[in-house]
Amino acid sequence: MVVVWIIAGLVALVFVWLALAKLLARVFPFPMPHRVSFILESWPRRITMPARTTLNRMGLAPGMVAVEVGPGTGYFTFEVAKRLKPGGRLVCVDVQPQMIERIREKIAHYGADNIETYVASAEKLPLEDSGADFLFLISVLGEVKEESAVLTEAYRVLKPAGVLSVSEFLPDPHYRTKSEVRRLASGAGFEPVSVKGNFFVYTANFRKPENSERITHR
Q: Reduced to 3 states, what is the DSSP secondary structure of residue 95?
């Protein structure tokens, strides 16, 4: 009986946290400030959201042109860049110059030669129409003001049959549920492909229809 009450208490705490987090995220939809960016590579995150596990769920492949929206300090960036070789490249776009500067420092240190970086908003990516094979957001979607606009922009830059991948995890205060992500992706024109993981940590993959018309204007 004690165990049952403990489990019930934990479940209740999760739902209370979700309710408070959603309220805060709606009122303050902003990216994680660069001053506390150390959290992005802290040991709790490495335990709850291992880079390898998350990337294995996404379906990256060598030769792809991939776009990482909101890379932060590059927790996933360099492993992604490795998986795209040979022949592939990774484009990182973040709205905070300080985050992009951190990634550029790491590029200089590690000698990564297939990563491009840009400072820009997720709602207006500095990329051509239908030029990317893969675009992913990891714990980023809930941090933007116009979620629908971000996914519409993702649709624009992806090639027909290109993949959109959205990963979320708790206790991120900007966490979005699977149903929320599915609704937003569908509204932008994407088709569901797969959802891997569980309620707390998951990756949802979608595809731009293969017969979609090429977009030539923003």
A: coil
Residue spans per domain, the chain:
1-29, 31-207
Architecture, CATH, for domain 31-207:
3-Layer(aba) Sandwich (3.40)
CA 155 to chain centre: 14
Q: Left (φ > 0), alpha (ψ -120 to 50) or beta: where does 182 sit?
A: alpha
- d(Cα 211, Cα 174) in Å, to the nearest integer? 33
96-149 residue pLDDT tens:
999 999 999 999 988 889 999 999 999 999 999 999 999 999 999 998 989 999
Which residues, 6+ apart, have CB-to-CB distance to 86 below 8 Å?
62, 63
Cα angle 109-57-102, degrees, rounded to a multiple of 5: 20
Residue type at position 133:
D
**What is the length of the chain?**
218
185 and 206 in contact (C-beta within 8 Å)?
yes
Q: Are strands 89-94 and 65-69 parallel, antiparallel or unpaired?
A: parallel
Residues 6 or more apart whose Cβ sits within 8 Å of residue 119: 93, 94, 95, 96, 97, 100
What tens digit of pLDDT does each residue of 95-106 get? 999 999 999 999
